[in-house]
Amino acid sequence: MKIALFVVVGLVAVAVVGSVFWLAYMNRGSEKVLTALLTAVFTLGGLPAAIFIILVLGTEPPISEVFPVAFQYDVKTKLPPPLPWTLISHRFLPSFILLNSLHKTHPELFSDQNKQNEGDVSQPITLYHHLLQRSLIEWMGERGGWQARRLRFDLPIARQESSEPMPGATGHSTTLQEPELRTALAGNWFRDTWVHAGASRLMLPPDTTLSISAPSAEPGQLADIRLANSFCQVSIHTSQHMWLRSLGMYRFLAGIPEDVSHQIATPVYEVRIVATFSRLRGGHPDMPKYRAWVRELADGLRDKFDEQLIWKRTREDFVFRKQFGIGENDGI
Predict the structure, then answer these.
(1) More confident residue, 142 or 282
(2) Is 282 buried (19+), middle (13-18) or exposed (0-12) by CB count in 10 A?
(3) What does pTM read for this prediction?
(4) Domain count, the chain
(5) Domain residues for 83?
(6) 233 and 89 in a common domain
(7) Distances (CA, A) of 251 to 43, 121, 142, 158, 261
(8) Which of 290, 217, 265 lies closest to 71 in space, CA to CA?
(9) What digits encode the pLDDT tens for the residues 259-270?
(10) Which of 36, 57, 78 is the last residue of a domain?
(11) If 270 and its partner were Cys, which of 41, 241, 250, 266 is the partner (CB 3.0–4.6 Å)?
């Protein structure tokens, strides 16, 4: 009986010591956490104190962003209207390629055959919600490796966008090729539509999983892109926000009358990015890389899709051209 008790006590002690060492190893990148952890173990009673210290000192604050995304389409064709280049140049242009490709293969998705009544606009709203989700994935694939940062140069000769490795970028990636992306996009209407057919891929942190919920038919039309690994979980929620049969203030920049503007619809969606980080790995030496990845992802998506930024840049570009009398077809 005593021998069995000693065995149990020994196993428990080994488990406690092993757990403490595991916690210390997972947070070895934080001197503050390690010092507090070892102090707690030797003075406050072992594993419970160690876990408490990790949860208090090792917790990374979440990252959250929310912004609107808008599209414009002709109410008859459901395709983008022929607007001046100044009004579309700041948008994510691959979205136009995806849309035109889908129109060629599935023109029925652009028809009004399923309209319940004259005021029913659910079909185009759903169509452009699918396009939004697919465009987000497309942009994520174009940004390069997961340890890359964006470079944006607004020059007098051209606007350039590229990426470069972050300082200290090391390690491997989980690379999802086109067949795997196609599987993840199973419910999305654009799953078979590609900007770079055969060459599309998505580079993520090691052992990161991707799951996608396509826009639903429910009111509000919710959709989700989820990325998860042992360091963090990222959710990119999209939902319908509003719909307006008008080009809005863009019509004054385009120089079109109000009746023509009312032949163009503007669906607006909300993108909400939420990222949480592992409470048990806050002091891990690789945690800064994962936080930098999430921060770069959230900032990059906002920079490319936020309608507020697009409107601001378009307006500034338009005013500049007007001020110096630069026409749409004027070269440099």
Answers:
(1) 142
(2) buried
(3) 0.83
(4) 2
(5) 63-323
(6) yes
(7) 70, 21, 31, 25, 6
(8) 265
(9) 999 999 999 999
(10) 57
(11) 241
